[in-house]
Every structure is written in structure tokens, then in C-alpha cells.
Amino acid sequence: MADNPTTLHTYGALPFYQIHFVVKGNGKVFEELLVARTRKRVRGVISKSVEDVWWEGGKIAERLNNDTRLKQLLLTILKDDDIFIDPVENAVRIYSRFKIESEVTRHLSREAIEAYNIIAGHVRSIMKEFE
Hints:
31% of the residues lie in helices and 29% in strands. With 131 residues, it is α+β, with helices and mostly antiparallel strands.
């Protein structure tokens, strides 16, 4: 008896995804300037709400902390997550933790994409400034 092609199987790859936004360039040159991550203050245990969000890390953290539009967006999209900026060999990765399949769409909302684009703009700006 053949399997129905619409049947979900519990074995194999797990339904977890990690979304990466990539800025091309020699990221390793700018490592100390561009390494950063978000931190947040959360209220509540079961029904959590983010009260404040800020960046820690290199020079880019200062610029990101001064961007009021980005802060507004992060307050709405960050719940149980953080965003990381990580320079690698030939790019700079902007990403968050792995998400279960059902949560991926929340992290691809219009607000989330706008926030990632703003972050990428600041990354490009620093890369151009310090070339």
C-alpha cells in the first residue's frame, strides 16, 4: 500500500528554520565594528510583552540604538527572540534563532523585513565608512 503524498511523517528533518539576511562584503575586516545582538526587558511570564530593546556590541550597536524607527519595529516583532549581527568570511549575516515552521511567517512580516533592511543599511554604511 503506497503512502498518501499529503501525509506528514514525524521522521527525517525537523521543521525548524533560520532566516538569514546577508550583506555581501569582507565581513572579517569589520568584525569588531559589526558584531552585535539585541537585548530586551520583558514583562510577564506567560503573556510576555517586550518593554524595552537595545543593542550590545561593536560600533554598529550605537547607531542601531539611535535609530528610533528600528526600535519601534523591534518592540513589535521581538517576543522570545533576539537578532544577531555576525561578520563572516565574505559577508555579514543578520539573523535570529531557529524557529519552528509555524512561527516563520511572523518573522517574515512586513515590519520584520523593514527592520532587517534598516539593520542592513546600517551595516552597509559602516562598511563604506571604514573601507
